[in-house]
Amino acid sequence: MMYKYQNLYKILIDAAKDYPRAVAIFDDKDKLRYGELKACVDKVGAYLQAVGIGFGDRVAMCVSNSQEFIISYLAITAIGAVAVPMNTFLKNEEFSYILKDCDAKILIASSSLSKELIKLNELESLKKIIWIGEIPKALQNTSSYEGMDEELGESVYLDVNLHPSTSPSLYSKSTRNVKFNDMLDHKYLLSIPRSPTLNDIVHIIYTSGTTGKPKGAMINYRNIFSNLEGAHSRFVVKKNDRFIVFLPMFHSFTLTATILLPLYTGASMVLVKSVFPFSNVLKQTLFKRVSVFLGIPAIYTAIGKAKIPWYFRWFNRIRLFVSGAAPLAKQTIDDFKLKFPRATLVEGYGLSECSPIVAANLFDKQKPMSVGLPLDGYEVKIVNDEMMELPVGEIGEIIVRGDCVMQGYLGLPTANDETILNGWLRTGDLGKVDDEGFIYIVDRKKDLIISKGINIYPREIEEVLYKLDEVEAAAVIGVRDTHADEEVVAFIQLKDGMDLDEKAVRAYLKKHLANFKIPKNIYFAEELPRNATGKVLKRVLKEQIKDKI
């Protein structure tokens, strides 16, 4: 396919030139216009160049929903570096693994998340941590960016080829921690000797893998632009649209569909710092005249069952609801149509490895329980274990081919060979297609659990459980609740003569895993069911648990 742009920064340049006064971001009472957004991106990009970040270097982000997330992401990619957005719900050990795996040179972090991030300051691979907000108290003995003023000057032309040896103080331990806001107090001119092209990596999204450790899916600009072009066409996005952004920005769906898509079309984003309280999401949706609302099934289930004020139902401007990350329950779809008869609810399907959107229902045609047709330019097939295509209506693994397919997992050639075959990406999802090509998701071939739109891999939790001396065997499964979302459930078999209770297990897990990975239910079994080779039979556990959830 042919694409109008080669990189994201060129979109921003055109937007700032053609409609500089148009609002790019609504943030509570603040507005950031496209001209102002480009100026902020230039400043942060120039600073990253000054500290030695060059083309292809990885810059990690652990940033809460904010203008700074958007500015940082665009600045990183503007200078040809690679953004690595990290799940803000992770714990120190998990952050450390990702930073080492991607060899990040810089970490941009929200100070509100410092509890799990402070120890990362000890990582030798990190040249600097840029803090959004105040530098954590434990690091107050270090100096802030203000200490560099004399060297950088009020207005300085900073080149991407600036080498650390020319500015040694920028790398000294005393300036390892920098305030993000201080960067915006100075005027910088951004120089980009080498602009990214379609084949260059734009970001790395970490997703759960078969080894239990997160895997970095490498996404290039071609992947992203194919998604943006396809979504722009499928959702009939217009320049006067306003997108609500309340889901975590680190999520591939949020990043592509609610941040980059509005930027691509010159539309506006309405930022909400958190989904809680949800009443604030509805308030911002109404007052900021949001027209495109993107969410996950858990959100739509809550809206479908909640008592929505009559004035919201009458005066909201929403024309399109989009659901992704997991299948919607039929009851949710039915409840929604009754409450919002003037809007269209479109269900889609995707995965991080596909940038992430693969398919979505048509704006003017939806089929119940279907995730729609592939976006323009993408191919989807249903195959058996031998990768042979199955007839219409038969259930098999969903495979995808097109410009959306990732460039591979970072540093994992074996996993790449298993996942991408002759350009076809094996999704691990089970589904079927009808005679019109509409896709229906049936189940997942792998053990991957999706809870509230977030991927959770059971083996990662099991590996932590196995570290407990009392545990002989452990198995973690996902069980669907009444809203078609999944709950994490753990089964534990104790060693003979050993004793352990649920409270102790939870306390241990909370020290090593993000809260969303902690099982909702923990059951102790005398013996876990196994097959002839000793593998735990999780399908048997799922049958046993049906009556308990």
TrEMBL record:
<feature type="transmembrane region" description="Helical">
    <location>
        <begin position="286"/>
        <end position="303"/>
    </location>
</feature>
<comment type="similarity">
    <text>Belongs to the ATP-dependent AMP-binding enzyme family.</text>
</comment>
<feature type="domain" description="AMP-binding enzyme C-terminal">
    <location>
        <begin position="460"/>
        <end position="535"/>
    </location>
</feature>
<feature type="transmembrane region" description="Helical">
    <location>
        <begin position="243"/>
        <end position="266"/>
    </location>
</feature>
<dbReference type="GO" id="GO:0004467">
    <property type="term" value="F:long-chain fatty acid-CoA ligase activity"/>
</dbReference>
<keyword id="KW-0436">Ligase</keyword>
<dbReference type="Pfam" id="PF00501">
    <property type="entry name" value="AMP-binding"/>
</dbReference>
<dbReference type="InterPro" id="IPR025110">
    <property type="entry name" value="AMP-bd_C"/>
</dbReference>
<dbReference type="InterPro" id="IPR042099">
    <property type="entry name" value="ANL_N_sf"/>
</dbReference>
<comment type="pathway">
    <text>Lipid metabolism; fatty acid beta-oxidation.</text>
</comment>
<keyword id="KW-1133">Transmembrane helix</keyword>
<dbReference type="InterPro" id="IPR000873">
    <property type="entry name" value="AMP-dep_synth/lig_dom"/>
</dbReference>
<keyword id="KW-0812">Transmembrane</keyword>
<keyword id="KW-0472">Membrane</keyword>
<dbReference type="InterPro" id="IPR045851">
    <property type="entry name" value="AMP-bd_C_sf"/>
</dbReference>
<dbReference type="GO" id="GO:0016020">
    <property type="term" value="C:membrane"/>
</dbReference>
<feature type="domain" description="AMP-dependent synthetase/ligase">
    <location>
        <begin position="15"/>
        <end position="410"/>
    </location>
</feature>
<dbReference type="InterPro" id="IPR020845">
    <property type="entry name" value="AMP-binding_CS"/>
</dbReference>
<dbReference type="InterPro" id="IPR050237">
    <property type="entry name" value="ATP-dep_AMP-bd_enzyme"/>
</dbReference>
<protein>
    <recommendedName>
        <fullName>Long-chain-fatty-acid--CoA ligase</fullName>
        <ecNumber>6.2.1.3</ecNumber>
    </recommendedName>
</protein>
<feature type="transmembrane region" description="Helical">
    <location>
        <begin position="70"/>
        <end position="90"/>
    </location>
</feature>
<dbReference type="Pfam" id="PF13193">
    <property type="entry name" value="AMP-binding_C"/>
</dbReference>
